[in-house]
Amino acid sequence: MGEFELIARYFKRPVRRASLGVGDDCALLAPRPGMQLAVSSDMLVEGRHFFADVDPQALGHKALAVNLSDLAACGAEPLAFTLALALPQAHDAWLAAFARGLLALADAHGCELVGGDTTRGPLNICITVFGEVPTGQALLRSGAQVGDDLYVSGTLGDARLALEALQGRIALPADVLATARQRLERPTPRVALGLALRGLATSAIDLSDGLLGDVGHVLQASGVGASIQVEKAMELLASSAYQSSAGGQFEQDFWRRCVLAGGDDYELAFTAPPSARAAVAAAALQADTAVRRIGQIEAAAGLRVVDAAGHGLRLAFPSFDHFA
Ligand code: ADP
Ligand code: MG
């Protein structure tokens, strides 16, 4: 199978909303009047972001999911994406499974594949997504206000738990590992929540590198500080390992690290004023995504994690950094 046959077989599909899709030198997109294009790229590299033996269908899903998560964090509606793919070889079964996982998620979000590049090389997947957001309504990192509530969607920690187990640092019961692994390998981008939070959230970010580090980006961009109540944050931990007796097998610090600095969760962290609590609850309901209030934005710079008595905890959990 040659390069062009490969593209035609797995990645060329009829266009829908795009003006021109795969097959020419450029794709053409026509954002609707009054809309801005939201654009983001994320690259997945073998050995860095996934293991060589990962299920290709899950990999296809995740490669697009992490990109859709960026659109979600901006409150943008998915429109289209491009796929730049380096492959060691054109293996039919692998490509079919990869395309299945990728395109199923794409179809679920009405996000069409309009182009890309295909080359031989170490396995590397780079997707660029394009979304639409009404002019001026994108959710940004820079809008958090003193007095705002700090929220997180869904659950945190299971992706890190799975990673610890897959890298052999901990042992987990098979059923617990299977659930946690699902979160690591098939994250759910919170697109519906991002859309529902337009005009409501003052700032937002998606959690890819760990809660503390990513919220830190919001604080820096907004020129504010924050406190997080550790008990409330720990309620974000869904892991059945934690709920069961196996939870006692690990120290409290281990579980805190999973939640506060786990990474790869692809939930949204966002801020909104206390006057918007009912509206935030309604948005969460509309998006069918749980949200939890875990802290508040404060004038004093920095991010404090406090216990029930309001005492600051000393935590040294670095968030993920490829070059640290
Ligand atoms: P060019 O050399 O002009 O950049 P290519 O020969 O690389 O174009 O690609 C031919 C067409 O196939 C282009 O429209 C390109 O966008 C598309 N394409 C290439 N690789 C992929 C891929 N992995 N997924 C989707 N479309 C692709
Ligand atoms: Mg090319």
TrEMBL record:
Positions with a binding annotation for ATP: 116-117, 141, 208
Binding, Mg(2+) 1: 41-42, 117
Known EC number: 2.7.4.16
Binding residues for Mg(2+) 5: 209
One example GO MF annotation: ATP binding
Residue positions binding Mg(2+) 2: 42, 70
Function (record text): Catalyzes the ATP-dependent phosphorylation of thiamine-monophosphate (TMP) to form thiamine-pyrophosphate (TPP), the active form of vitamin B1.
Misc remark: Reaction mechanism of ThiL seems to utilize a direct, inline transfer of the gamma-phosphate of ATP to TMP rather than a phosphorylated enzyme intermediate.
Family: Belongs to the thiamine-monophosphate kinase family.
PANTHER family (UniProt xref): THIAMINE-MONOPHOSPHATE KINASE
Protein name: Thiamine-monophosphate kinase
Taxonomic lineage of the native organism: Bacteria, Pseudomonadati, Pseudomonadota, Betaproteobacteria, Burkholderiales
Name of the gene this protein is made from: thiL
